[in-house]
Every structure is written in C-alpha cells, then in structure tokens.
Amino acid sequence: MVQSITLDTAKVLIDAAEQKAEEIDNPMVITVTNSEGNLIAQHRMDDAWLASVSISRNKAYTSAALDMPTHELAEPSEPGNSLYGLQTTDEGRIVIFGGGYPLADEEGDIVGALGVSGGAVEQDMEVAQVGVSRWEEIRGE
Questions:
Q1: Is the full-model pTM beyond 0.90?
Q2: Coil/strand/helix, residue 138
Q3: Number of domains making up the chain
Q4: In terms of Cα–Cα distance, which of 108, 136, 103 is closest to 1?
Q5: Residue 127 is assigned to a structural domain of this protein
Q6: What residues contact 64, with CB distance under 8 A and at least 6 apart?
Q7: Domain coverage including residue 57
Q8: pLDDT digits 0-9 by tens, 1-54
Q9: Is the torsion defined by CA of 127, 125, 129, 109 positive or negative?
Q10: What distance in Å separates the CA atoms of residue 43 and residue 55, rounded to the nearest whole number?
Q11: What Pfam families does this protein map onto (predicted)?
C-alpha cells in the first residue's frame, strides 16, 4: 500500500504528462499533490499561461479533496442540480471542469492527485490522463 506520492514519483508523472503536452504542441502546467491536496511538485512549461499555475494546482486539490476527477463535477454543479455553486466554495479552490484526477493506490485509497492546465479542457484531460496512466504503471510494478 502506498502512503503518499513521493517527489521522485511526482517528477516521473510530470515528465510523462509533459511529453504528451509537447507532442500536441501545447505548453501546460502540471501539478502533483498528496492525498490532502498539498503540493508535492509543479512544473510550468515554457510559454504556459500564468493563470494555469493556480488552475492546475486547484484541479489537483479538487480531485484530492473530493476523490474524483474534476470533469465529473460539471453536471452536478449546474443550476438546479445538487452541487450548484460548488465552485464558489472552499475559498474558490474547487474546479468543476476537466483536467484533475485522483491517484489511488492498489487498494483504491487516494494517495495523491494530478492537475493539468494550459489548453482546451479536452487537451488538459488528455495530458493528465497520460500522467494517470504512468501512475498506474508505476503502482503495478
């Protein structure tokens, strides 16, 4: 059982995600947090948007805090639904669009999270999913 993501592991996940961002020619900010949403590592590629620094961190924080990918919060937080207004809570740190994913250990416990920002939501999700896939490879070793 993994207790928490280490800095070395965070660097591996960031590297995998960065390679995908380079492949699609879109500079990104990639963040890895522990299970409580506290920063382990963050990487801002050259020319990535400054706003993406806090957005990627908040995506990772949201995934860690709520144990779910951020894109799964979009529909429940629409007007009239049960989580309407969620993004205005927790000092504005909750993100309700894609690019944040929790990282679970082999028993399903959340041990960290990954957040990516810098492109269209679909691009953020694509890049983040590469980091998540790399985590799953490492976890399975």
A1: yes
A2: helix
A3: 1
A4: 108
A5: yes
A6: 33, 34, 35, 36, 37, 102, 110, 112, 113
A7: 7-140
A8: 567 899 999 999 999 999 999 999 999 999 999 999 999 999 999 999 999 999
A9: positive
A10: 13
A11: HbpS-like
